[in-house]
Automatic annotation (TrEMBL):
Ranges of residues in domain Aldehyde dehydrogenase: 28-476
Active site annotation, chain numbering: 257
Entry coiled-coil feature ranges: none
Organismal lineage: Bacteria, Bacillati, Actinomycetota, Actinomycetes, Kitasatosporales
UniProt superkingdom: Bacteria
Keyword Oxidoreductase in record: yes
Protein name: Aldehyde dehydrogenase
Keyword Oxidoreductase among UniProt keywords: yes
Protein family (similarity comment): Belongs to the aldehyde dehydrogenase family.
Signal peptide annotation: none
Keyword annotations: Oxidoreductase
Amino acid sequence: MTDTHTTTVAGVAVDTRHWIGGERVASAETFTDHSPIDGAALGEISRGTAMEAAAAVAAAKAAFPGWAATPRAERARILHAVADGVEKRIEELAIVETTDNGALLRSHRRGVMPRVAHNFRFFADWLLELEHEDFDTRGHTNHVSWDPAGPCVLITPWNAPLMLATWKVAPALAAGNTVILKPAEWSPLTASLLADIAAEAGLPAGVLNVVQGLGSEIGDALTSHPDVRRISFTGSVPTAKRISASAAANLTPLSLELGGKSPLLVFADADLDLAVDLAVEQYDNAGQVCLAGTRLLVEETVAEEFTKRFVEKASRLVQGDPRDEATDIGPNIHPRQLEKIDGFVQRALEAGARAVTGGHRRDGQYYAPTLLTDVAQDSEIVQEEVFGPVLTLQTFGTEEEAVRLANDTRFGLAATLATGDRDRADRVTAQLVAGTVWVNCFFVRDLQAPFGGSRHSGVGREGGTWSFDFYCDLKNTVTAP
Ligand code: NAD
């Protein structure tokens, strides 16, 4: 149900306008947001332009001195109040996110939304622990402080909308910055709910602004704005290149969290059931996970047995409505994404790949979980990010070959190892190009740890102190004795 400025999604009212300077602001034009579950129109969302971008940056700039000067303890208190608000609305946030982006309701309810609240609590608490460093140089004192940088533009994708947004929003605000958040146009709704929650928690007007619209329109206007002091972007490599070019004009510092084509290495000495569990987990969120280990690299001697067990386990996955508790894999986000996924798979099959399982669409916006073998290392399906439930399997004979294959793409986001040999794990890990390596586990993320990718998977790291380093101007004050 939609009126001019509100849409009701699964019983939850969501404002479809921007949130700028503590007020709801509508654009002249709108775009339609659809649910990937059934294609239903969810609402007409304000389609921001350079005008709203300028208004949001101006609001963030005006609010900056007041928020930067707010004592740390008070900033932390308000961020905890935001976390309280998220916790009170977990059910609403979960159902709206699932309806908007198609990821599993059970994960949103029990995993993602509680972690959204945790993101605010973690960075609020970290702020209070952040010590100014002091050291001595020939009797002179060096005093290093973290000064907030100013208005930060945060641009996020659709695969984990509120989770990825709050990894940025929470540290940026904790550090004393003001924020302009632009969520992806395929999943704009929970960002609007976050604006409501932040306002109710007492965040002053203009400290968090949320703008809606297309990347090429309002996104571009934001990243090229001279008053913006930081840009943090999570999304695709082509967009990152465009944003880097815009930011270059103003030398705006950037943090880029981009795509991946991560390897999952299975050695013969691994617990094979664990390795299979890890491999099947790569289908989570219908394969729309930047960190997914989509290239299974399996030692020759166990490849046949691994494949047999993998197919057995994958065939038990339940694909369907993400609101059902029993569902393991939901729909893909958009008809265009489905086209893209199927294009990759069909071209791979034409080039000689074999679909051990899947390899085709299903009714609606669903893609069958797919495993392809007989793929060449230099082929598109091995080198490019598909961002769907599509894995490839290659075999290796030696550890050296495994490392060579693992590192042989332009990405470097993550890697997963299944091995029973700790020495091997250490040896291989030391040679892998990856921002995160998981040994006999997957997707365990502690906010204290640095997170990011190498090569085309990103620039910079966020998490813990690294986030504060990025969102602050570090200042060293040297005082004579
Ligand atoms: P995308 O690059 O198409 O869009 C991401 C965001 O950028 C959206 O909000 C979009 O509106 C905006 N945008 C598009 N063009 C812009 C422009 N010219 N200027 C400013 N903003 C612009 O990416 P996507 O399809 O939404 O997301 C999928 C990609 O994100 C995948 O490559 C995935 O691997 C990556 N990703 C990375 C991580 C990570 O942490 N490394 C996490 C999740 C997703």
